[in-house]
Write a structure and sequence with these properties.
With 748 residues, the protein is mainly beta. Helix content is 3%, strand content 52%. The chain contains 5 helices and 37 strands. The strands form 5 sheets. The protein has a 22-stranded antiparallel β-barrel. Strands 3-8-9-6-7 form a 5-stranded mixed sheet. A two-stranded antiparallel ribbon has the order 1-2. Strand 21 and strand 22 form a beta hairpin. It is globular, with a radius of gyration of 26 Å. The relative contact order is 0.15.
């Protein structure tokens, strides 16, 4: 490995833009999904700003008595919340063991992320409890962050680093009453640090490693904060990652020609961030700026060779936050944000291939999101009340240029359409405890919530939640939740450019209607000084489900269709998606030196195609892309079970051992069960379709060791996939083999 200089750039406030950043992009098939992970991830590579390691003698009771603000929008102990909640605290983030945000989240119950084990920077799409990739709200400091120019409005997690992350809160299940559109699967809130004692604080770290033959990766982090005694503070930081990666697409060609050989896919990613603020017992005010910029090489697609194909992603993120405690019982809060971003992909074959063909493709996507949110909180005796409202607006644009030998050049853009939509919301929540009425009723609680949404495109919607929960005793909670959800079609689905110019029916479908959901969950939590256990059952039904389909000429029998009868591809409301499952989490402090966590998730899922609105299709045949079945008049409904990339079972176990205060050892095992993926088959219908295939299960073993040389300086050695297991998260895409990383960190 070549020597690397440790990069550190500290700044306090202002607009700094870094131009060197990246990830590797690949096509996604419809869906991925669920599973498990440990409630405690033993850790990241020193990107938190705290100055000391976790006290290894800290008891399990201290570790799990964590407070969540995301579940109810007020501070509450997780044992007093009638929902499935995980809080990954700063102490847990400090333990050695995880490289990336996706790696960390993949170990949490109910979460499966495609791209976690692939090349660093590959598209990392999160699926919570089997919900689609656009059905989970991901927030940064309480602000939803997404990409409206994507087909499902989903965020690519590779955008986000763990720099200066203080805690991560995961709330499972439908939460549209508090967080609006898309919160069908749940909410993940990534909260950065703004709680420092007066003085100077900082850290710097360097990580180097390799994850396969002829690969290497380098990561640098720096952070600096100064807090004055009067509560004013300023801080800034920098994160950089670059690598020489694996060939992202699996090489399936025998004796490939030179132009068909897959090169290694490289990544160059950088983030800068700054914040100025003021905090005292009555006020919490800050202004925050972040910039992400990524450059990447990528393959054309699974089973296909890369050929001068590169891309870039850039995002700016501005956030303003004000919270004022009017009285000890009455609080008001405002959050506002603005985030523009753009993605570019360029394929330029300047030298003709073996068939004397030349190809040029330029794809440009841009989007902007703006949020404004105000809430008023009132604590009355043992109950809490919230009243709030706000707006969320998004817009997108797209430009494409394409040329291929023998065909006329084509150019498309959405300049005239200016796709956008705005949602105005008002919400209310009452978290009622029986002790407000009588001390004898303190074990009983009832949470009621409702949200009214007015969408500029689709009109009005009301979501609600009913959540009774019962404290069996001081350490046990039984809860039941019924909630409804709402998800508006993405701007790409409504207005996106045709990927096949000249189609008779457009890819965009302005007749789409929002998806709605009904979710039920029942669970139990139990906590004593040495054991923490949660067990839950959930079921979610999504109506008006939106899927991608092919359209064919209705005037010919299906078995007589030819390529000339293809009318286009599009998005349709196709029917109903159902997911249900069981989750189990257990954590135990066996003694002062040994801590064990484990979890298991079991999921079943299905998608039923029926009652399809044919206005956009003009009554033509509908072919389901995933599976190839035709929906013709009188054919009835079609049902698929075991939906794409949703493991039926997953499990994790993690052991952390601290033989002496300065040494921290950990080992983790992750199991992912069989799941269905899809491979294109040209024999399915006249134009082909994705044919279901089964991906094998796999088990991965990781281990790490950390040593505190001094109170400020530590070294960590980590090994991942120690058995060098060959496995696939997505059919046709490479995953990392045996990996080793060395991290050095200094904090003050």
């Amino acid at each position: 490995m070549e020597r690397r200089e440790i990069f550190l750039f500290f700044f306090f406030a202002g607009g700094v833009t870094n131009k060197n950043v990246t990830f590797i992009i690949m096509k996604k098939t419809v869906a991925h999904f669920l599973c498990a992970g440990t409630f405690l991830c033993s850790g990241l590579y020193a990107q938190n700003s705290s100055t000391a390691k976790q006290d290894s003698s800290k008891s399990l009771a201290d570790s799990i008595k964590t407070v969540t603000i995301t579940a109810t929008r007020t501070e509450k102990d997780v044992m007093d919340v009638g929902r499935s909640v995980t809080v990954i605290s700063g102490d847990q983030l400090h333990q050695p063991g995880c490289n990336t945000l996706a790696d960390l989240l993949s170990r949490q119950a109910g979460i499966f992320i495609d791209g976690t084990g692939q090349n660093p920077g590959n598209i990392q799409t999160l699926f919570l409890r089997g919900a689609d990739d656009g059905h989970t709200v991901i927030m940064l400091d309480g602000v939803p962050i997404s990409d409206p120019s994507n087909d499902h409005n989903e965020l690519d997690l590779s955008e986000l680093s763990l720099a200066n992350v203080d805690r991560i809160e995961i709330v499972r299940g439908s939460h549209s009453t508090l967080y609006g559109s898309s919160a069908i699967g749940g909410v993940i809130n990534i909260i950065t640090n703004n709680n420092y004692t007066p003085g100077l604080h900082g850290n710097i770290s360097e990580t180097g490693g390799e994850f396969g033959s002829n690969t290497q990766s380098w990561e640098e982090n720096g952070f600096l904060n100064y807090t004055f005694k009067n509560g004013i503070y300023a801080e800034g930081g920098y994160h950089r990652f670059d690598d020489k990666g694996l060939s992202a697409a699996v090489d399936t060609l025998k004796n490939p020609l030179p132009y068909q050989k897959n090169p290694q896919n490289n990544l160059d990613k950088g983030d800068v961030f700054s914040r100025v603020g003021f905090k005292n017992p009555d006020w919490n005010i800050y202004l925050e700026y972040r910039n992400t910029n990524q450059k990447f090489g990528l393959p054309i697609g699974a089973f296909e060779p890369a050929n001068n194909y590169n891309g870039q992603l850039a995002r700016d993120f501005y956030n303003a936050f004000i919270r004022y405690n009017i009285t000890p019982q009455l609080h008001i809060q405002y959050t506002g944000s603005y985030s523009p971003m753009e993605r570019k992909y360029i394929q330029d074959t300047s030298v003709a291939d073996a068939y004397n063909d030349k190809e040029y493709e330029y794809l440009y996507y841009a989007s902007k999101t703006t949020t404004n949110d105000v809430q008023l909180e009132y604590d009355y005796k043992t109950s809490q009340f919230i009243l709030g409202g706000g707006s969320y607006s998004e817009e997108m644009n797209s430009n494409t240029d394409y040329f291929f030998t023998g065909y006329p050049a084509s150019t498309t853009n959405l300049d005239s359409l200016k796709p956008h939509q705005t949602i105005y919301d008002a919400f209310a929540q009452a978290d009622l405890n029986g002790a407000t009425l009588a001390p004898s009723l303190k074990a009983f609680s009832l949470l009621l919530g409702a949200r009214f949404s007015s969408n500029s495109t689709f009109g009005n919607n009301v979501s609600y939640e009913i959540n009774p929960y019962f404290k069996i005793n001081a350490n046990s909670l039984l809860y039941l939740s019924y909630s409804t959800g709402f998800n508006a079609p993405s701007l790409y689905q409504l207005y996106g450019p045709d990927d096949m110019p000249g189609d008779a029916i457009s890819l965009a479908n302005s007749t789409l209607t929002p998806e709605t959901s009904n979710s039920i969950e029942i669970g139990i939590k139990h906590r004593i000084s040495t054991v923490y256990l949660t067990l839950s059952y959930f079921s979610t039904i999504v109506n008006n489900y939106i899927d991608y389909v092919y359209l064919w000429n209705k005037n010919k029998p299906v078995d007589s269709l030819s390529y000339s009868d293809f009318l286009g591809d599009t998005y349709l409301n196709v029917g109903q998606e159902t997911t249900q499952g069981i989750e189990l989490n257990v954590a135990s402090q066996l003694d002062k030196t040994l801590f064990v966590t484990a979890n298991m998730s079991i999921l079943s899922s299905s998608l039923t195609y029926s009652d399809i609105n044919t206005t956009h299709t003009q009554g033509n045949y509908i072919q389901i892309f995933n599976g190839g079945n035709f929906l013709t008049p009188g054919s009835g409904s079609v049902k698929y079970t075991g939906l794409l990339r949703r493991p039926g079972a997953m499990a994790n176990i993690n052991l952390t051992y601290t033989p002496v205060p300065k040494v921290h050892l950990s080992a983790s095992v992750r199991y992912v069960g069989q799941r269905t993926d899809a491979q294109y088959n040209g024999a399915l219908g006249p134009y082909g379709a994705d044919e279901p295939t089964t991906l094998a299960d796999y088990t991965l073993l990781d281990a790490s060791a950390s040593y505190d040389i001094t109170k400020q300086f530590s070294v960590t050695l980590r090994g991942a996939n120690l058995f060098n297991t060959t496995y696939y998260e997505i059919l046709g895409y490479t995953t990392m083999g045996r990996s080793i990383y060395l991290n050095l960190r200094y904090a003050f």
